[in-house]
């Protein structure tokens, strides 16, 4: 489990888990779970297009993540955010279906883009993952106070000069960056699990923002580490354990919160 060929897996998975846990805190308190689900799925057509053109998949991920952010933010100005998210997702998934239908690596491409290749991370993959992860965390730290204020009370934020519209675009941009760095490792479906499950559990355990953010990152890392270890021992897919453990973490957090209320 700790052989040389597994080192990159542990490093990449840890980076992804930390970023997903930190960014996921704002996903939960802003009620943006649908957007966190849609952006990874709307970004994977970019990797499919890059694969079709023979270029670095990360380029396609970043470009289509930007398309997803632009689509959600622009359409949301003229209607509900959930509808804007759904429309953007549908349009980009349609393009993804077109790109994947033109590639000769159809099955492998779909599987890798949706479920990742956490056990096949190369040295060349670690650099971009680390850089994008560092940028995502840095932006989250810089935007922490205005983003938190805008998330908790948009009206108060507007009164203090914090534009809710600008914060929404910046927040979606951070989620898109986190998605781009995580998708090649854990896939479009599993990055959503890491962003929502651990952060929801942390939010149920504490009401202090900084503590909840730190706890979310810790739970996310423990989830990924446990998933890799269980996958190695059982030879079952990593994705099964990531999704299952994320759900268990949320259930445990909610149970603890309910028990604490009853004790009080």
Topology diagram in text:
Elements: H1 4-29, H2 33-53, H3 57-76, H4 81-101, H5 106-115, H6 123-142, H7 144-152, H8 154-159, H9 164-205, H10 209-234, H11 238-263
Written overview of the protein:
- With about 260 residues, this protein is mainly alpha-helical.
- It has helices at about 5-30, 35-55, 55-75, 80-100, 105-115, 125-140, 145-150, 155-160, 165-205, 210-235, 240-264.
- It has a single domain, classed as ABC transporter involved in vitamin B12 uptake, BtuC, CATH 1.10.3470.
- The protein has eleven helices and no strands.
- It is globular, with a radius of gyration of 18 Å.
- Helices cover about 85% and strands about 0% of the residues.
Number of E-state strands: 0
Main CATH class: Mainly Alpha
CATH architecture: Orthogonal Bundle
Mean pLDDT: 80
Structural class designation = mainly alpha
> Beta-sheet strand percentage?
under 5%
Cα separation of the termini: 44 Å
CATH superfamily: ABC transporter involved in vitamin B12 uptake, BtuC
CATH topology: ABC transporter involved in vitamin B12 uptake, BtuC
* Low-confidence runs: none
Assembly state of the chains shown: single chain
Q: Which descriptor suits the 3D outline? A: globular
Short description:
By secondary structure, the chain is mainly alpha-helical.
Note the main attributes of this structure.
264 residues; mainly alpha; ABC transporter involved in vitamin B12 uptake, BtuC; 86% helix
